[in-house]
Amino acid sequence: MSDMYTPKASDRFTFGLWTVGNIGRDPFGDPVRNPIDPVYSVHKLAELGAWGVSLHDDDLVPFDATPQERDGIVREFRKALDETGLVVPMATTNLFHHPIFKDGAFTSSDKEVRAFALRKTMAAIDLGVEVGVSTYVFWGGREGAETDAYRNPADAVKWFREAINYLSEYVLDQGYGIRFALEPKPNEPRGDLYLPTVGHALHFISTLDHPDMVGVNPELAHETMAGLNFVHAVAQALEAGKLFHIDLNDQQPGRYDQDFRFASENPKRAFFLIKLLEDSGYDGPLHFDAHPYRTEDEEGVWAFARGCMRSYLVLKEKVRRFHADPEITALLAELRERDNAYGGPEASAGYTSDGAAALRQQTFDIEDMAQRGRRYEELDQLVMELLLGAR
């Protein structure tokens, strides 16, 4: 299949090794697919038009690998990257799978576990730099609790801050030109996680020793799990200059972390997300952190990967049509002209004593303002017709 929605490297699509490599195990059932070798995944993703691949340390190098085994694995992986032209823009550390992390990693109540988590992460950062990453992500999957009967959550936040500060200094000391991104999530696998939303993460970043080095990696499913609007979360990160990376998938609100194929559940929300990203000029990786359905064999895995990329491109084209549609653009222009007709004192001009005095004296026609319709029903219907192919 080759058409205007066929992905190519310039689209900047990336996949985690753990996404296409997902074996379909869940809490109620055994695996349904065999593991996929990372080198094979690199070649298949390149064949499908992806730009890059991301990884946890353990996705590539097994937890108990010897130094010799580690070097051999990395050598073969880098060879595959060279052969295909794929890049590795992001890496992260698996601090959630091994039983040692059952009560957290950076926020574990056990000081020895916290030290081991730091050492594992330093080694994983070294690995990431070796394969060319520019952004290093921290998802605190076990950084949370089911009960607050023992650990003071304020201590947990302090320990989390100490870890990120320590690793920031490590990166600076080593001369690595990378930056960090925190990935918030409200819950799962812990009952509650300590950085549940983008807003929590942005505030946490402001308390760090090197806040300029740290941004966020928001995931569509994570904010949606909590019933929040992911587009608004991404907008807040963009406005703060902190959107360092993004995870794309889909999700039904109020469910477990479903990690569905991008735009498969709510294409309208995905449309507004893509519109925000494209209009903002975001030029980072478009990373799919999703899983094929458990019903699928390997062929279904690659259909899933192809579908994620095609859905983005289809909706990106819808964004272009939105901006080119004469009825939509005329309505937007009419609304904006009216909204900007006011020429009196207001906040965007900045505060002055004289300005505040003038605002106090400003005459407003309250009745007229209250009666102005927004025409959002009309505009939203035009969007729906665009998405449904009626325009």
Provide an overview of this structure:
With 391 residues, the protein is α/β, with parallel strands linked by helices. The protein folds into 2 domains: 9-320, Divalent-metal-dependent TIM barrel enzymes (TIM Barrel), CATH 3.20.20.150; 325-387. Helices cover 48% and strands 9% of the residues. It has helices at 17-20, 38-48, 57-60, 67-84, 111-130, 153-174, 198-206, 220-225, 230-239, 267-280, 298-324, 326-339, 353-361, 366-371, 376-387; strands at residues 13-16, 52-56, 90-92, 135-139, 144-145, 179-183, 192-193, 214-216, 247-248, 286-288. The strands form 2 sheets. It has an 8-stranded parallel beta sheet with strand order 8-6-4-3-2-1-10-9. Strands 5-7 form a two-stranded antiparallel ribbon. The longest helix is centred in the C-terminal third of the chain and has 27 residues, at 298-324. It is globular, with a radius of gyration of 23 Å. The two termini are 25 Å apart.
Mean pLDDT: 97
- Report strand order across the widest sheet: 8-6-4-3-2-1-10-9
Radius of gyration: 23 Å
Residue ranges: pLDDT <50 for 5 or more in a row?
none
* Structure summary, number of beta strands: 10
What topology does this entry show?
Elements: E1 13-16, H1 17-20, H2 38-48, E2 52-56, H3 57-60, H4 67-84, E3 90-92, H5 111-130, E4 135-139, E5 144-145, H6 153-174, E6 179-183, E7 192-193, H7 198-206, E8 214-216, H8 220-225, H9 230-239, E9 247-248, H10 267-280, E10 286-288, H11 298-324, H12 326-339, H13 353-361, H14 366-371, H15 376-387
Parallel strand pairs: 1-2, 1-10, 2-3, 3-4, 4-6, 6-8, 9-10
Antiparallel strand pairs: 5-7
